Structures are given as structure tokens and as C-alpha cells.
Amino acid sequence: MNRNRVDILAELSRSSVLKLKSIGIRRHYQDNQAVQQRGDLPNHALILISGRLRAVLHTANGTEQLSRWQEAGEISGIGSVLADTPVPVDLIAAGAVEVLILPKQPFMDFLASDAAACIILMRTLTLRVNELFDISFVRAANTLRDRVWATLQRLANENGERLSDDRTALRMSQNDVARAVGASRQRVNEELRKLEAEKKVVLGYRRLEIVDPH
């Protein structure tokens, strides 16, 4: 289990999952479709049933900057629903996805009746706050090399697949890394090649392996 992510569907009781499914609305999206957009009204939370979403922000010139990947079982939008504030990021389908839309009032009623679910969701929110601090730390790095390496470590901890005691796989392309770092693909590729020469990463097709990301 990845301690940096919370799989709601796996951690909630069976009765709680059934309750959410009874109030939820299933929807399907195709690759690169917007599931939600920054500034949307907080009308619902959503659970990713299958597939993968990328959470992104856009710079002033329209460049997409990757914040994180949302994996199956994770919930998003709870902060906006609870605080009644607009959605802070875009969620974009990375391939075909299925989500469970949880309308605001039925979801709030569910939380009011399920203390155990509230505790699990509090852990989700805490991890997202910690993630924001990690992102701020990464972006404050002095050099592009430091930003690239720190970004890979952060994403490996959150979204990586542990292969062995000292190696973690990330399903992302070099374009994805460039978007997460906020630099050009060419410059990021140069830094990745240096890290590969130092045996800190292994580069593959839409995949990287991080050596000892901790």
C-alpha cells in the first residue's frame, strides 16, 4: 500500500462504499477530456473508479504544468465541497477513465452520518496539504537539476510502483516530467540523461525507474 495515497474504495467499509455508489453517478471520459476545470463551482466530489487522471495548472502563457496523478480509488474535490470554494486545478483524463460523481448535498449527508469515513477523508486532505508543501519546496530549488530530481522523488513516492528495495517505476513520459518541472522538454531531457549516467534513473518508453527515491 502506498502511504502517500488513499484508496477510498479499499479503505471504507463495504456498507460505506455501497452508500457512496448509491448516491453517485458514473461517468466515462476519453483520453485528454477535461473531467473538471479550475474555477468550476464546488457542486460535487468525485472518485476515480478506473484509469488515471492528471491534475494540472496552466501558467499565464497557457503552458500545462503537471501537479500530480490521481490514481484509481482516490477522491478529489472534497476540499472545495467542504469549504464551498471553486475547484483549484484541472483534472484531465489520461486514457479512458470512469469516475463516480458525488453530488454535494448527498455527499455532505453521507459524511454527517459516517464518522469513520470522515477520518479517512481527513487523512486524504492532510496528504494533499503535505503535497503542496513538497511542491513549494521543489520549486524553490536553486538549479534545474535539483528541481528535476526532487520532482522525480516526489512523484515516485506518490505514484510510483515499488519494484525492489531500491527501485521505483513511474509511468510517465519525459514530456510529463517536463510539465511537472515547468521547464522545456529539451532542458529536462538533458538533466535526465545526466541522472541516467549517474545511475539514478533508468529511462524507458513512457516510463522511468528511480533508484532509491527516498
Quick tags:
single chain, 214 residues, alpha+beta, Jelly Rolls, four-stranded antiparallel beta sheet, 8 helices, 43% helix
Which regions have little confidence, pLDDT < 50, spanning 5+ residues?
none
Distance between the termini: 16 Å
Number of domains: 2
Q: What name goes with the CATH superfamily of the largest domain?
A: Jelly Rolls
Task: Report the C-alpha radius of gyration, rounded.
Answer: 18 Å
CATH class type of the largest domain: Mainly Beta
Strand content: 25-35%
Question: What is the general shape?
Answer: globular
Mind explaining what this structure looks like?
The chain has 214 residues and is of the alpha+beta class. The protein folds into 2 domains: 8-138, Jelly Rolls (Sandwich), CATH 2.60.120; 143-211, Winged helix-like DNA-binding domain superfamily/Winged helix DNA-binding domain (Arc Repressor Mutant, subunit A, Orthogonal Bundle). 43% of the residues lie in helices and 28% in strands. The chain is built from 8 helices and 12 strands. Strands 1-8-3-6 form a 4-stranded antiparallel beta sheet. The chain has a 4-stranded antiparallel beta sheet with strand order 2-7-4-5. Strands 9-10-12-11 form a 4-stranded antiparallel beta sheet. α5 (115-139) runs antiparallel to α6, α6 crosses α8 and α7 (174-181) packs across α8. The longest helix is centred in the middle third of the chain and has 25 residues, at 115-139. The two termini are 16 Å apart. The mean pLDDT is 90.
